[in-house]
């Protein structure tokens, strides 16, 4: 008997000599006395509304972000957004997340290295504002089960940690894990080329020994710190941000396979990387000024 | 648990075993006192030809016993139990094991949601997790070696409820409750009665498999404290050395320190698919717990206690002069 309510019966009252309390039964809607609006991803809509209000002037006045090809991002269904990543504390992530949310009215889940979770305060705020740690299982759940937009930077920390002399040279795209996840979840990959983040917070040099001592992925000395002092840690330069959404890449393989061909994954990953690289060069050809676009 | 089973007329014989006398009266069930590794189980199984064993004595709270004893109970106890069930000609057809979501650990590298077959991402760090992982390993081996026996493993999230005392419940019932500065992990709870109901559900339905059991919804620790009306005291996140002395002050076992940083979420769809419905959500479990706690505090009394008296029980069960309520 696999009934859902095993202790249901005519006699919920015990016939024992000493009365016993039986687990209560009720078929009403379960009471759920929640106080906050934090969801299973740790996002809070209140925090997000506040963050949006604070970030809006930075997005439209400081960076003056400008989009191209936004119509290529679907208004429903899951899709994996993939972008190039740069600047010591990269502004590309919040610009893309805020931009899509503002223009298309749909939330973007920014996937970041799980190192973020280990940082007190920052990790919690990142989660409340809509960040998720970049684990394949998380991406799959978002894309396949919840039909959301997820944003990843396949360069990982190699992108933002590169020095200014290497600007706009895309790093290796990891091991192509993002392609595999998109295949497994059966969603398209949508590449987004970003320019401006390199100049917003240029890395002059890196101090690997300090990074090691602090247990962080990289420890950059930025032009912002040299210019503004300690304030420079959080203050990007007002570089003009331009973003271009490229054509969605569909893979035409069955979803939910246990394994996908490694060579196919690497090939697709490399193709997306070179498309993005080419788009970045193309946008730089059209850019007259770092600050005014 | 036994009380719930007693209400089911399809159960012929119910036999309880424990190291302590039961704290509630049994109606039909009989009780045998055992040592903590359950070494006499083998003889009992042979003598009674039981067909189902409910293995609910695993320790999931490292503050109750020293780690050596926990190993004895969880690992050696499980081993004895499985050995008794696996002897040639054994009558045992179904084994239900009560485990905990502690086997998933809690780390920054964890996925947001653990499915039943998601592996841990971090090495085992403390004794209670080690003992549980090892015991579950034994159970898995057993089920591979004995395909004829149905094996159910239920992994329960942190339990809160009217009666149970755990480090979490002790912390939440005080005016001050520890938190780790800068962290506000998401936690899932399961209500005490739902634990019993889940065990009864799989026992009755003979449902084999591995299942997570947790109430719906995840709450940040700050919200849990909010529901309980206690104030959070942030501890320094940086050095475990700084946490240690305070940990003693606050009743923070090792397995809780990581949980208060990274939390844990489990997928419960598989168990729901077997037809089980919960009586409480995570938030509901927290509230049930704190309401019971307030009543206890304000009435200054523990809920009705029962002392097992062997002679009295035997009298009720066997004396011809006792009228059976069921007969009337």
Q: Can you tag this structure with a few keywords?
A:
heterodimer; A: 293 residues; alpha/beta; Glycerol-3-phosphate (1)-acyltransferase; two-stranded antiparallel ribbon; 9 helices; globular; B: 328 residues; Rossmann fold; four-stranded parallel β-sheet; two-stranded parallel sheet; 16% strand
Number of domains of chain B: 1
Multimeric state:
heterodimer
Biggest pleated sheet of chain A: 7 strands, mixed
Strand order of the largest sheet of chain A: 1-9-6-2-5-3-4
The average pLDDT value of chain B, as a whole number, equals 81
What's the total helix number of chain B?
A: 12
Helix share of residues of chain A? 25-40%
CATH homologous superfamily placement of chain B:
NAD(P)-binding Rossmann-like Domain
How do the strands line up in the largest sheet of chain B? 3-4-5-10
CATH architecture of chain B: 3-Layer(aba) Sandwich
Average pLDDT value of chain A? 86
CATH level-3 fold name of chain A: Glycerol-3-phosphate (1)-acyltransferase
What is the largest interface, and how many residues per chain? A-B, 49 and 57 residues
The tally of beta strands of chain B, per DSSP, is 12
The secondary structure category of chain B is alpha/beta
- The SS-based structural class of chain A is alpha/beta
Distance between the termini of chain B: 26 Å
Give the count of helical stretches of chain A.
9
